[in-house]
Design brief:
By secondary structure, the protein is of the alpha/beta class. The chain has four domains: 78 residues, no CATH class; 308 residues, Rossmann fold (3-Layer(aba) Sandwich); 100 residues, no CATH class; 126 residues, no CATH class. The protein has 18 helices and 24 strands. The strands form six sheets. The chain has a nine-stranded mixed sheet, with helices on both faces. Strand 12 and strand 13 form a beta hairpin. The longest helix has 30 residues. The two termini are 17 Å apart. The protein binds S-adenosylmethionine (SAM). The site of S-adenosylmethionine has 17 residues, from strand 18.
């Protein structure tokens, strides 16, 4: 047992894929000796073939195959597997209710950010909505530079590239190369899929330019069988004076899902409440589309036992019950006759369904207490058009600071298709943060607990733009301001409602804001740690000494404790909204994450007392700075021993893991 080095890179995608394969076919993983005579693990591809049975193999040299291909596709796969060493640094002052909120706004290039989120959010996101560049030939496409992606970003965020040229949106058009667009989308969609839950869904807005490529790309990434639908969205009423005389008034919302996804709108049922039952009930039809010939036993005259009034069956539409079962149902209160209740306006007997029966049935059918209705690909008028998105922006900012924002009503409608209201929604092409707007408002409307993660590049607002004129330097700044404005708007409404309620009910004055109304800002940046570059096995002695020197103290001296804390959360696989408590243990500051599962101590010195105190708290993991043990191997050995001996009381067997950075 020894201390482990905390991994400071994002999740290893290829390794994760191998683990998935291992779960399916453990027998294909074998031990062997490599060319250097070392014992290693390998995959026996012949065995894998045998496992897969008699399936036609693609033979070398066969160039024709069905599918989408473009120059750079292979590189894109390699890029996905290239781990990120970056971090996300918290920006408290730009956030709202930083310590309570579970919403995130991440400023950065979404490729790096998606990589960083892999460990903490793998399989945790139920809904993704994106509205990526459509490849119209006019919009700016982020200059992906795969070999130095973080450096490119940092240069970009400083808005000057390494040759001192300005990155700018109003450079001459990049052209509409499909290859460029596909190379941009492929790795991002691949990484996005990893984040989806097993019942997760992704909605992608697109126009005619790349619709066909997007579908093919998604067929490959999500599986053709998981294509849910392509919704047409009417963005405007018809325009005149258009090429070919055809006005393209629709865009598309391409929807793919993981296999367990099921869409549906909850049906709100209206129940009656009466003194004779202590639960609600509704009425339903007591007749069925069957003839007297088909159902002779149901063709009888119903008699009201209380009044003797008679109701003969309709021979072309008989009762749902039979003469023999009537009494049974009646005794259980399942049959209601005209006159039973003053408030019921019926002229023939009806069936009664209790609330608990509905709940039971819905649980069986949908796994939820409420009933669902299927979703149509025809979107209703309520989803709104581009003009509604523009109006929303103008209403909030007082001017049109962002063109072509989607209406939040559209995103709300898409989110309502998911028959659940407690999940994470990700939008990694956030733009003006319409998705965040929709999430906040929808929660307010239905009491839901949806949380958002927005990712947006600090793309500069063009100098000639209204946004620039209004003082917003980047789209990210504008998006953050929009979220603040929406929060303020909802709060103002709440305060007004509360005041009204307080007037009616004195004593109810206190302002209690919903904790869902906030967001935490984080920014993509380089790691707070100098990461050991072990990639070059033939490193020169000189270089090696240089690296060793750097690692004597490898923590960036400018890093704040909070910066380091968030990097450790991310790289240890904890969510960025995990509850963090600051504690003092044996006179040292310790951060307790996720109710004590993870304890982080960033003090420069660790003592025996602290180790005892940490062990007594029984966390799953402890992270300390390596330098805190510097020169005291005995102390480190003691710590490892103490932690290993202290089995966790909660599940008895797992020893506490000590990691150092
Ligand atoms: C079409 S807009 C999204 C508009 C959004 N749906 C709205 O309603 O405001 C696409 C956005 O993606 C952003 N973007 C493009 N490339 C990006 C990247 N690599 N990382 C993060 N954001 C990016 C652009 O800055 C742009 O604001």
């Amino acid at each position: 047992m020894e201390t482990r080095r905390m991994p400071l890179r994002s999740m290893d995608i290829a390794q994760t894929n191998r683990e998935k394969l291992r779960q399916l076919f453990p027998s294909v993983f074998v031990e062997t000796v490599n060319q250097n005579g070392e014992l290693v693990e390998a995959i026996d591809f012949d065995k894998l073939k045998a496992e897969l049975g008699n399936f036609t193999e693609l033979f070398d040299g066969r160039r024709e195959r069905y599918g989408l291909d473009w120059p750079g596709k292979k590189d894109a796969l390699r890029i996905i597997q290239e781990p990120s060493a970056a971090t996300l640094k918290p920006a408290r002052e730009e956030s709202v209710r930083f310590d309570q909120t579970e919403n995130l706004f991440i400023e950065g290039d979404n490729l790096e950010v998606l990589k960083l989120l892999q460990k903490s959010y793998y399989g945790k996101i139920k809904a993704i909505y994106i509205d990526p560049p459509y490849n119209t030939g006019n919009e700016f496409i982020y200059p992906d530079n795969y070999t130095e992606s973080l450096e490119t970003y940092l240069a970009y965020a400083g808005l000057i590239d390494d040759q001192g040229r300005k990155f700018s949106t109003n450079t001459p058009s990049e052209g509409r190369y499909h290859t460029k667009w596909l190379n941009m989308m492929y790795p991002r969609l691949y990484l996005a899929r990893n984040l989806l839950t097993e019942d997760g869904v992704i909605f992608i807005s697109i126009d005619d330019n790349e619709l066909s490529n997007l579908c093919k790309l998604c067929d490959e990434i999500f599986g053709e069988e998981n294509r849910v639908a392509v919704f047409p969205w009417r963005k405007r009423t018809a325009k005149s004076d258009v090429p070919f005389g055809v006005s393209q008034d629709f865009e598309w919302i391409v929807v793919y899902a993981k296999p367990e996804f099921e869409a549906g709108f909850f049906i709100k049922r209206k129940y009656y409440y009466s003194d004779d039952y202590d639960e609600g009930w509704r009425i339903s039809d007591l007749t069925v589309q069957r003839t007297a010939q088909e159902r002779p036993n149901s063709n009888f005259t119903l008699v009201n036992p209380k009044t003797g009034e008679e109701y003969p069956a309709n021979p072309s539409r008989v009762w749902t019950i039979t003469k023999d079962t009537f009494r049974q149902y009646y005794d259980k209160g399942k049959i209601v006759f005209p006159g039973d209740y003053d408030f019921l306006n019926i002229s023939r007997p009806v069936f009664r369904v209790f609330e608990s029966e509905d709940r039971e049935k819905n649980l069986q059918r949908f796994g939820a207490e409420e009933a669902r209705r299927a979703v149509s690909t025809l979107l209703p008028e309520e989803v709104g058009r581009t003009e509604d998105g523009t109006k929303e922006i103008t209403d909030l900012f007082g001017r049109k600071v962002f063109p072509f924002a989607k209406p939040s009503s559209l995103i709300k409608y898409l989110l309502k298709m998911i028959p659940d209201n407690d999940f994470i929604v990700l939008d990694f092409f956030a733009g003006s943060a319409t998705t965040a707007h929709a999430v906040l408002e929808l929660n307010k409307e239905d009491g839901g607990n949806r949380r958002f993660i927005m990712v947006q590049l600090p793309e500069p607002c063009e100098e000639s733009s209204e946004a620039h004129d209004a003082g917003y330097k980047t789209i990210a700044e504008l998006a953050k301001e929009r979220i603040r404005l929406v929060i303020r708007g909802i709060e103002a409404k709440q305060t007004a409602e509360r005041a009204e309620a307080a007037e009616a009910l004195p004593g109810l004055g206190a302002e209690v804001y919903d904790l869902g109304l906030g967001f935490k800002v984080l920014k993509l940046d380089k790691s707070n740690f100098r990461i050991w570059d072990g990639s070059d096995p033939d490193i020169s002695e000189e270089k090696l000494i240089e690296q060793l020197d750097l690692h004597v103290d490898h923590v960036d001296p400018n890093a704040t404790e909070e910066d380091i804390l968030y990097e450790l959360l991310l790289k240890a696989g904890f969510m960025l909204t995990e509850r963090i408590e600051e504690k003092v243990m044996a006179g040292k500051r310790v951060y307790s994450v996720s109710d004590g599962d993870l304890l982080i101590c960033l003090e420069d010195e660790v003592t025996e007392d602290l180790i005892q105190a940490l062990a007594a708290a029984r966390p799953k993991q402890v992270i300390c700075l390596d330098r805190a043990f510097s020169g005291n191997d005995q102390l480190k050995a003691n710590a490892v021993h103490t932690f290993a001996a202290k089995d966790r009381a909660r599940d008895g067997i797992e020893p506490i893991v000590l990691k150092t950075v």
